[in-house]
Specification:
The structure holds two protein chains of two kinds. Chain A is built from 13 helices and four strands. By secondary structure, chain A is mainly α. In chain A, strand 3 (276-278) and strand 4 (281-283) form a beta hairpin. The longest helix of chain A has 30 residues, at 3-32. The N and C termini of chain A lie far apart (61 Å). By secondary structure, chain B is mainly α. Classes of the chains: A mainly alpha, B mainly alpha.
Chain lengths: 321, 364
């Protein structure tokens, strides 16, 4: 593999890792507060649809982004309503949200655009344009570093940079702010937080709102950055891969970045090379597709380090116990 | 006594939940500019008013009985098996291997062997998550989700690279030999003068599903194993104290669960398509969740809920055919059913409990 090809693969790794990273950080906030979220897929899908739909109608990708975030947040609040206010089963609620998004997006898309459940293709202002960073053109001729800067670091849409900046920001919020401390505490020992006079319900709703916001960015990036418009089921399991990455990262922000980049790389390689020939042994493309899931199962099984989730995760908090 | 009567818990709560889901669904139909009453009439007409409609409805019902029982038995052991989809896919592989490579003399022998193969393959696929949960403490929900995707990749590989007939483009096996074709309802019930169930895919597997319901009831409420599964689901610590092995119950309950999911493939693969195609499960594994929730994990409830979803599926197909409402309406209805009967259970139950308590206070 030559240098130019390597850069291209890494470039698509970054593009493919971005929605995973945003969704993974979304799940991180939610699960750290003790709300297990298997509805990431549905939230992303809802956001992808509404951002593309609004961007197509108004011609403004920014309005689309706002609409996408709103859609994802709405899904988040349904989840919160069921699992925080009414102390329902978080897993079942997450499953319901995935189905709700999967059905509603196609239903509404068909009603609004009559194009078989997709939105019209986005053009011009309806899409996030790639940003050329300063000096990218000028430095392009410099050997090794020039193409690296031009191909890999420059030339992505703004949401890619937002996603990568979210990693240190998430770390800072979780480990350096009072809100983060309480958020982590409520996922481990909600009764302690409650005793300290801090509202468990409010904290968990806040976490779920952040989760909705980040999933909104992820979905909007899918439909208006990575691709030009919404097609049915366009998230294609990314919400579940993000969930897998979250477990792989053991619920920590920097590791989430590495896990998402790894899974992004797997997707990029699978996309570029169908079957990989390793001198006699051929790895079929299906193995690459399944690898994130297999790795997650291995991690979950504790064969490579133990993945210990937040202790209060999945349990609704009942005040008098 | 701060509880409401058992009948209210078993009948009233799900009924109100379903009513709420139905009202919201009607709202969705209104919102996309169609008439919900007209839509409902069309669905009833297409699914229940002709025998071929019934043939389709019962065909889907058969799928949902199996996947519903699959989720229900896991629920009894307090586990949430989201892996029915993957287990059914692998079950389909078992059916295909049996049908393609064993020369059967008659369909009844073929059905027997294929049933064993489907159940064994489905159970094997459920075994790994079960074992990991029991021995290594990895959460069964997450592992079964992962195993759905792994199953899809595996099936894709097998169909594309191993079982696809030479020269064929589509990732599917060749058609099964004629001796393995199951009798459809049309073969069984239609006569010269009375052509019933014409062209519909309902087949003998339906009776297998009904038998599974009865066996499920017997297992859960009339055997020692069933008692152990229920005890384990009620309280793991109490069950452990009573000498019930958590590892054994987790694994056995999931094996039965996976076996039931695998048997669903008999209906789609052997009964309908008569070959294994890539997306043979069509999401039935997930519908099992709604069916089990709605049926309160009781075989009678599961049967009725499966029938309702069979009706919705066939009615939905009919809607998509005659109106502008896409089939995805069913997904929305399914989501609402899961949401209201599963996650928002307390929203209905708490006010009802209050109501019953105030009624009791007044009468005493």
């Amino acid at each position: 593999m030559d240098y130019a090809t390597l850069l291209q693969v890494l470039d698509s790794t970054v593009r493919l890792a971005t929605p995973l990273l945003l969704a993974c950080l979304a799940g991180l906030f939610s699960e750290r507060s003790g709300i297990v979220d298997i509805g990431l897929e549905g939230k992303m899908l809802a956001a992808a649809f509404l951002s593309a739909a609004i961007a197509a109608v108004t011609g403004s990708v920014w309005l689309g982004l706002l609409a996408g975030i709103a859609a994802s947040m709405l899904m988040s609040f349904i989840h919160g309503f069921a699992s925080i206010t009414f102390r329902g089963n978080q897993l079942i609620s997450g499953v319901a949200i995935n189905f709700l998004a999967s059905g509603l997006t196609v239903l509404i898309a068909q009603d609004w655009f009559s194009q078989g459940g997709r939105t019209p293709s986005l053009m011009g202002g309806g899409r996030f344009e790639s940003i050329t960073l300063p000096f990218a053109e000028a430095l392009r001729g410099v050997p090794v570093i020039g193409p690296l800067y031009y191909e890999l670091i420059s030339g992505h849409s703004i949401l890619v940079y937002v996603a990568f900046l979210m990693v240190p920001l998430t770390w800072w919020i979780l480990y350096r702010t009072r809100f983060g401390l309480r958020l982590r505490a409520v996922g481990e020992a909600p009764e302690a937080v409650d005793t300290a006079g801090v509202s468990v319900v409010a904290l968990r709703y806040a976490a779920i709102a952040i989760c909705g916001l980040l999933c909104g960015l992820a979905g909007a990036y899918l439909a208006t950055g990575l691709q030009a418009g919404f097609v049915r089921e366009m998230t294609a399991g990314r919400g579940y891969i993000a969930l897998a990455a979250l477990i792989f990262a053991k619920w920590r922000p920097w590791y989430a970045l590495y896990a998402c980049l790894l899974f992004g790389l797997l997707q990029a390689v699978a996309l570029r090379y169908q079957n990989i020939d390793l001198g006699g042994i051929i790895i079929p493309v299906q193995v690459m597709d399944a690898l994130p899931y297999i790795l997650t199962v291995v991690i979950l099984a504790g064969f490579v380090g133990k993945a210990i989730p937040p202790r209060a995760g999945g349990e609704p908090y009942v005040k008098e116990r | 006594m701060d509880k409401m009567p058992a009948w209210a818990d078993a009948v009233l709560v799900p009924l109100i939940s379903i009513l709420l889901a139905a009202i919201l669904s009607a709202g969705v139909i209104l919102a996309i500019g169609e008439n919900p009453i007209e839509a409902f009439k069309l669905m009833v007409d297409g699914a229940l008013m002709r025998s071929s409609g019934w043939g389709y409805t019962l065909y889907y019902t058969t799928n949902f009985i199996f996947t519903g029982l699959c989720v229900a038995i896991a629920f009894h052991a307090k586990m949430f098996n989201i892996g029915g989809e993957g287990q059914a896919m692998i079950g389909g592989l078992g059916v295909a291997l049996a049908c393609l490579f064993i020369p059967f003399p008659h369909w009844s022998v073929a059905l027997l062997v294929a049933t064993l193969a489907a159940a064994a393959f489905g159970a094997a696929w459920a075994f790994i998550p079960a074992w990991l949960q029991a021995k290594r403490g990895s959460h069964i929900v997450i592992t079964t989700i992962m195993f759905n995707f792994i199953a899809a990749a595996l099936l894709n590989y097998v169909l594309v690279n191993l079982l696809r007939p030479v020269g064929a483009m589509e990732p599917a096996t060749g058609t099964f030999p004629a001796a393995t074709h199951l009798p459809t309802f049309q073969d069984m019930f239609a006569t010269e003068g009375n052509p019933l169930f014409r062209g519909s895919p309902a087949n003998v597997t339906f009776f297998l599903a009904v038998a599974a319901c009865i066996a499920f009831w017997f297992l859960i409420w009339r055997t020692k194993l069933g008692y152990e599964i229920r005890a384990f689901g009620q309280s793991e610590s109490a069950a452990r104290y009573a000498g019930i092995s958590p590892v054994r119950i987790t694994v056995v309950a999931m094996l039965i669960s996976g076996g039931l999911a695998g048997m669903m493939a008999l209906n789609t693969t052997m009964g309908e398509a008569e070959r294994l195609v890539l997306n043979a499960t069509e999401g039935a594994g997930f519908i099992g969740i709604a069916v089990a929730l709605m049926g309160r994990s009781h075989p009678v409830g599961v049967f009725l809920a499966a029938l309702l979803f069979g009706f919705l599926y066939q009615g939905g197909a009919e809607l998509a055919l005659w109106t502008n409402i896409p089939r995805e309406l069913i997904t929305v209805i399914q989501a609402l059913v899961i949401l209201f009967t599963g996650a928002l259970d307390n929203m209905v139950r708490l006010p009802l409990e209050k109501l019953f308590m105030s009624m009791r206070r007044r009468s005493s």
